[in-house]
Amino acid sequence: MATEDSPRFDTVDWDEITSGGGREVTKSLVALGASLAGLAALLLYDYVVVPDRTATFAAVGWGYDVTKLDWLLALSLLFVAFYGALPLYRNERMTRYYWKEFKKNRPAVASLVFLAVVFVGGVFGPLVISSPESELLRQFQPPVFMEIPQNYVIECVGERAAGVCRGTWQHPLGTTPDGRDIFKMIVYGMQISMKVGLIATLMAVVIGASVGTVSAYAGGMVDEVLMRYVDIQQSFPTLVLYLLIIYTWGGGLFTMVLLFGLFSWEGTARYVRSNALSKSEEEYMKASRLSGAGTYHTIRRHLIPNTASSIITDATLLIPAFLLAEAQLSFLGLGDTSVASWGQLISVGRDHLSYAPWITLAPGLVLFLTILAFNFLGDALLDALNPEARAEAES
């Protein structure tokens, strides 16, 4: 029997009553805050202490100069670790269930392995492989098991036979018109693609999910205003804005990534809003509100976790879209010529397709496989994380 000191059901502080979670959430927030503070300290060290045109960690013998995109990438990986990997680690039962469902899709498993190779190559490749330098004497070296007429080559690195120059393992994928090794450029392009995909996608997902969730839960005038703004931004041609920025301040990869992230979240907002609207009518949402739980608790504990599958699958579609957009801009000559991105490498080889097709085909094939892998991954994640959607598709 309840006593006079017992709290009523509708006055319970639900933020204190979590499924074994109050202390763990606090530890996570403290760890995240400490990590952000450490990252901010390193950023201040780079921009305040380190002299201009000096490598960030030259004092400890590491000659790599951390760029603005590197700092954004580190921040993105930090949030992915705390809000993606850590929840999976904590909930082992659900993680095992997701993996069991996911591995039923064999193309998706192969895609995951391929994307893991791209990720590892992008992180560690530039640390162990020297940057692709221009060597004019080695222009148009063919890939292994291919050959090119001798008159296109100044100095044949491989074997010469019957007026042709054959490829060698010294340049397994050949070289560009200025003699840069294509294999090295593809490895360095993995890092560029990782930065473009992860940073821009995280920005778009955070903004879009926030707008979509608030719009769905608040409703009324808030929903109307937010959705009308989404309509206005979605109708604005992003390419024109990018051209104006290039003309005014000059373009670059950093500008491109910010533009992708800040002006590509409208579809995510609409997708999350429609999903959140359907979830808000579920019985557990009504029970949460009737039990006295506040708005913040209901959104954080019920609405966002139950729309996470929509957000994750949408992210797997945004990443290849950004990679393809970067390749298209580079092909049109609007990309950053100072970086070895896959799109930039495809653009370099477009004038030499008749006698040196490998310059375009090699990065083009890697880009194609990466986009295909993300599509397979997205389908498998949708099946594993959202069985209801799979059941509706099969019915």
From TrEMBL:
Where are the bilayer-spanning segments? 29-50, 71-89, 109-129, 196-219, 239-263, 355-377
Q: What's the main place this protein lives?
A: membrane
Q: Where is the ABC transmembrane type-1 domain?
A: 190-378
Where found in the cell? Cell membrane
Superkingdom: Archaea
Q: Where is the signal peptide?
A: none
Q: Which GO terms describe its biological process?
A: transmembrane transport
Q: Which InterPro entries match?
A: BP-dependent_transpt_permease (IPR050366), MetI-like (IPR000515), MetI-like_sf (IPR035906), OppC_N (IPR025966)
Q: How does it sit in the membrane?
A: Multi-pass membrane protein
Q: What are the alphabetically sorted keywords of the record?
A: Cell membrane, Membrane, Transmembrane, Transmembrane helix, Transport
* Statement: the UniProt record of this protein carries the keyword NAD: no
Q: Which GO terms describe its cellular component?
A: plasma membrane
Query: Which Pfam families has this protein been placed in?
Result: BPD_transp_1 (PF00528), OppC_N (PF12911)
CDD domains with a match to the protein in the record: TM_PBP2
Classification via PANTHER family: D,D-DIPEPTIDE TRANSPORT SYSTEM PERMEASE PROTEIN DDPC-RELATED, OLIGOPEPTIDE TRANSPORT SYSTEM PERMEASE PROTEIN APPC
Family label: Belongs to the binding-protein-dependent transport system permease family.
Q: What is this protein called?
A: Binding-protein-dependent transporters inner membrane component
Biological source species? Halogeometricum pallidum JCM 14848
